[in-house]
Specification:
The complex is a heterodimer of chains A (about 260) and B (about 300). With about 260 residues, chain A is mostly helical. Chain A is built from twelve helices and no strands. In chain B, α6 packs antiparallel against α7 and α9 runs parallel beside α12. At the A-B interface, α9, α11 and α12 of A face α5 and α6 of B.
Chain lengths: ~260, ~300
């Protein structure tokens, strides 16, 4: 376990040395502040468009950070020839995968804390309320969902040749799931066989990342809290995919030549 | 070797060519400059006609905000959302909606769909009725639709609906009557003499400023403009009951009804009856109007209130 945490610690340090997060965070703040300065019929209580924009930027930024950070982890170790010395230490391949995953996931958690703190401050500046539990639910499921994306990207970094191709494929898959994942069953119903069966299979096989993504609307429009049992069930559902991707990554990495 | 004469001739030829080119291009640049001046709108300059598509999306987004996010996508049944509810609720637009608005999602298709519905807005609400909290004291949150309406008006200044809807919510729920009037006047600058904009402007004068004389003038001007919209076509043809005339009949009835109510309030019973008779021609419920006319005819004429203006 210590080995896993040691690897994770290095990944977290790498994130705060790089400029990705700072650039995206400042960009989010600047865009939101500019949009907040727009005068809409002399009414300074209008906030929902700002909340929606801010949450969208948070989602995009977090996905960019999660995918790009994860995609370069193992290829970078290989390119810098540090992978063999790492594995020569008492560190198994499985520990390396779990360490990399944990590091990226925790780093994304820290990123989300900063982003949601800004979001909360922005919303409170006009609404004068702090629905902290709602924000916690949204941020927590967002974080668990990023776990799926990180595990998937980690697996992709072992399968695809270059980090760029892996990142692009992961972005397309995640965006596709978020946009039409919820409607694949409806699309399947209107298709003839065998397309229907194929689409149904995809629908049941993919991780439904759009579920936490849809929560943005609840936050933006001040809907009441979701039942905690549903939040827990969704977290378990997503963690099952995290486990599946990590096991697959370990199996692939075990058979992969590292030199 | 080229002689100096050849160079001079070449220079003159180039000068003549430049002069000809300038003479040819000048009128084209002039017309381009004029068209730029006409289209002072940044978005229409940048996006061209496609700005209307974005304007429509923005208008629909405003309606989605009006429903606090409970809104059909292209994959859902949107029969009950053809006319945006925020526009329908203004009373200035005819409804083309059919079906049940509360259950456009239908029953859950599978367990993932059923589970996912806990994480999205899943109840039909309107912001002016309290939104998801059902708290009527928070009806002012209808202000949240305004940024999208403003953007829609910027993108497509010729869309009447945007101005009417914006002005209605500004004056009724947010008590921003001067801003509402400003919105309508902005709309009239882009769409001179539009009957719907004039109708809404008349409502501001009648309901908010309590200036019956001015409201009457504006509504009468709206009726004149309504007639001018289809020159040569008789009123009876425009009021025929078919789908094409649906909006025509609706605005005519709204104008005549408003004028009739105004005349009633002013104590001009004969003028009011005449207006009700005209409203009856376009109304989907002429029997009810006839009943009201009969009641008016039986009433003794009341003396007109001193504040109201004369009938025109």
């Amino acid at each position: 376990m210590n080995n896993i945490f040691a690897v994770a610690g290095i990944v977290i340090k790498e994130l705060y040395r790089r400029k990705d997060f700072y650039v995206l965070f400042i960009l989010t703040i600047v865009i939101c502040v500019i949009m907040a300065s727009v005068n809409i019929f002399n009414d300074n209580q209008i906030i929902r468009y700002l909340k929606e924009l801010c949450l969208l930027l948070i989602w995009v930024s977090s996905l960019v950070i999660a995918i790009t950070t994860t995609a370069r982890q193992i290829p970078a170790e290989r390119e810098q020839r540090t992978l063999l010395p790492l594995l020569a230490k008492p560190l198994s391949r499985t520990q390396l995968i779990f360490g990399k995953f944990l590091g990226c996931w925790l780093a994304c958690g820290l990123v989300l804390v900063c982003f949601y703190a800004f979001f909360g401050a922005l919303a409170a500046s006009r609404e004068h309320t702090w629905p902290l539990l709602n924000y916690f639910q949204a941020a927590f499921l967002h974080w668990v969902m990023l776990g799926v994306v990180i595990a998937m990207t980690l697996l992709g970094s072992l399968v695809f040749a270059a980090p760029s191709s892996n990142s692009t494929i992961c972005f397309v898959v995640v965006a596709g799931i978020m946009c039409i994942g919820r409607y694949l069953d409806a699309i399947a119903l209107s298709r003839p066989e065998p397309i229907r069966s194929i689409v149904w299979t995809i629908y049941y096989a993919i991780p439904h990342l759009e579920i936490p993504f849809g929560m943005r609307n609840l936050i933006v429009h001040d809907w009441p809290l979701i039942g905690w049992n549903f939040v827990a069930l969704d977290a378990l559902y997503l963690l099952a995919y995290v486990a599946a991707f990590l096991v697959a990554a370990c199996l692939v990495f075990r058979r992969k030549a590292v030199n | 070797m080229h002689s100096a004469k050849t160079f001079w001739l070449l220079l003159i030829a180039l000068l003549v060519f430049c002069f000809g080119l300038a003479a040819n291009l000048q009128p084209r640049f002039q017309s381009l400059e004029n068209s730029r001046r006409q289209s002072s709108n940044f978005f229409s300059l940048l996006l061209g006609d496609s700005s209307r598509i974005f304007a429509n999306s923005s208008f629909v987004e405003a309606d989605a905000y009006y429903h606090s996010g409970y809104y059909p996508t292209i994959f859902d049944n949107n029969e009950a959302f053809r006319t945006p509810h925020m526009a329908e609720d203004t009373g200035a637009f005819a409804s083309h909606n059919q079906g049940e608005e509360t259950s456009f999602m239908g029953p859950p298709r599978d367990w993932i769909d059923a589970f996912g519905r806990h994480f999205i807005p899943n109840r039909h609400t309107h912001l002016d009725e309290g939104g998801p909290t059902d708290d009527l004291s928070t009806s002012g949150t209808v202000r949240e639709i305004l940024p999208w309406l403003k953007l829609s008006a910027e993108l497509d200044p010729e869309n009447i609906k945007t101005y009417v809807v914006t002005a209605f919510w500004l004056r009724t729920k947010l008590n921003k009557v001067p801003e509402a009037e400003q919105v309508l006047r902005e709309g009239l600058r882009h769409n001179p003499d539009d009957p719907q904009l004039l109708f809404e402007l008349g409502r501001i004068y009648f309901e908010n400023y309590h200036d019956s004389a001015r409201a009457r003038n504006i509504w009468v001007a709206a009726l004149r403009s309504w007639v001018r919209q289809a020159p040569g076509i008789p009123q009876s043809v425009r009021l025929e009951k078919n789908n094409e005339n649906f909006d025509n009949r609706f605005i005519f009835e709204q104008l005549q009804t408003s004028l009739a109510q105004l005349e009633e309030k002013a104590g001009n019973q004969d003028a009011a009856i005449a207006r009700w008779e005209l409203a009856k021609l376009a109304s989907p419920t002429p029997d009810d109007i006839q009943k009201h006319i009969d009641e008016l005819k039986q009433k003794p004429a009341a003396p007109p209130p001193s504040a109201s203006g004369p009938a025109q």
